[in-house]
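Today's session is about reading a structure prediction critically. Students often jump straight to the picture, but the first step is always the sequence itself: look for stretches that repeat, for charged clusters, for runs of hydrophobic residues. Only then move on to the predicted structure, which in these notes is written as discrete structure tokens rather than atom positions. Here is the chain we will use throughout the hour.
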Amino acid sequence: MGRFDTSLRPVYLNRAAGEMMRWCASYYTAHPEEAAKQQQWLEAQRSALATGLRIDVEAPMPGVDIERWFLSTFMPLRGPDGAVQGALWIAREITDRRRAEQALREGEKRFRATFEQAAVGIAHVAPDGRFLRINQKLCDIVGYTREELTARTFETLE
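Below is the predicted structure for this chain, in token form.
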């Protein structure tokens, strides 16, 4: 599907949403091979209309030089009789959040590698003396397995 589904016609768009919709429509028309990426967004909107449930979709903005991500929320709009008559679409740029999450994942990966590959024994110990996290070097130094250490407290090491 290389264009927007006309059955999902917007009733009102603010300026930013209108620009985004025009950009996406233009992009997918010029790049029909990437139209499958649009499907997640369209399916979320259809699902909100069909099920009457709120749907959240995180997706990148297509065809921009830098990666920009948006969180689109689709919420059903009900008429006086309770029937779903449309959907409210709210899009928020979440690029900074996505970058921060990626940086956090990379930092955690580096921490785990440093912790496990350290030339010294390292342990995280709870205030009550229980071992929470132990690297292999500490096990080698004290002569216990991780399982044996986690069954002990710091004070009971011999």
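Discussion point for the tutorial: The mean pLDDT is 83.
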